[in-house]
Design goal:
290 residues, alpha/beta, Arc Repressor Mutant, subunit A, D-Maltodextrin-Binding Protein, domain 2, 7-stranded mixed beta sheet, two-stranded antiparallel ribbon, 9 helices
């Protein structure tokens, strides 16, 4: 069993295909097939089920994929610890990011300083809803991810704290109020943003034993803002996720009582994190805790 075989297995599982994995790795499809066949023969199990247009993991394949990614992660840490001794001139860092708060407000500045300090580290960024970043961490598909805290499953590092605010059309009757309660927001149509803090918003209403009148679900915050701006619905979002050049068609109002949200970084196990990952976390903390 080799690390190359495990890397090929992990990539085929992620991309659901031999051809896509071969193209990503820059090798022939036959080389990918041969590596996986050899791995399956050595382990004595079928890792993948081949279909005409798609490859799927077998039950044991799903179980062993997590082990394979753990081994690849440790191997990457080993390489980067050696690179650290040479000045961290080479390595890879995989980051998971969600929503405007991390992807637009936090990540660009951190990356600017990180690339200047460690130009030899190759950075990969995957964006998705906050719950998907959690899944990527658990599956070891990323080294570090931006998450909404608290998050007990991981080692975490707080970066910023903001508050949740209500957004209303500028001509809505509630726009005259200084602040709004969650119950104030349950009568009108409500739009829920699936990315970002949708789970936090849902938990807030659930904890208060309230049910918002959800009429719209948007995958992107910009669509949510447009829905509110058109006067079609109300919503609750994190204040730091709002664009700097805010649309004059809607207004934001603080919630009463105040609801805060904390965003930070998470890793599966700090003790096994690579030097490149730890350097990123240290830099992010320095830039955001000044």
């Amino acid at each position: 069993m080799t690390l190359t075989q495990l890397e090929i297995f992990s990539l085929v599982a992620e991309l659901h295909g031999f051809t896509a994995a071969a193209n990503r790795l820059g090798i022939s499809q036959s080389a990918v097939s041969h590596a996986l066949k050899s791995l399956e023969q050595e382990l004595g199990v079928e890792l993948l089920r081949r279909h005409q247009s798609r490859v799927e993991l077998s039950d044991i394949g799903q179980q062993l994929l997590l082990r394979a990614r753990a081994m690849l992660g440790l191997a990457n840490t080993l390489r980067q610890e050696a690179a650290d001794a040479r000045g961290m001139k080479r390595g890879t860092l995989r980051i998971g990011s969600f929503g405007p708060t991390s992807s637009i407000k936090l990540l660009p500045l951190i990356l600017q300083h990180y690339r200047a300090a460690h130009p030899g580290i190759e950075v990969h960024i995957d964006e998705g809803p906050d719950r998907q970043v959690i899944q990527w961490l658990e599956e070891r598909r990323i080294d570090v991810g931006f998450v909404v805290l608290p998050e007990e499953r991981f080692d975490t590092f707080a970066l910023i704290e903001d508050q949740m605010v209500a957004l209303l059309p500028v001509d809505h009757p509630l726009a005259r109020h200084d602040s709004l309660s969650l119950s104030d927001l349950c009568h009108d149509p409500f739009v829920l943003t699936e990315a970002g803090s949708s789970e936090l918003v849902s938990r807030l209403f659930s904890a208060a034993r309230l049910t918002p009148n959800i009429r719209y679900r948007c995958s992107q915050l910009l669509s949510t803002l447009d829905t509110v701006g058109r006067g079609d619905a109300l919503t609750v979002v994190a204040e730091s996720s709002l664009p700097d050049d805010r649309d004059s068609r809607y207004v934001k109002k603080p919630l009463s009582p105040t609801v805060t949200r904390q965003v930070g970084l998470a890793v599966l196990d700090q003790r096994q994190s690579s030097p490149a990952t730890l350097a990123f976390i240290k830099l992010a903390e320095r830039l955001n805790n000044r």
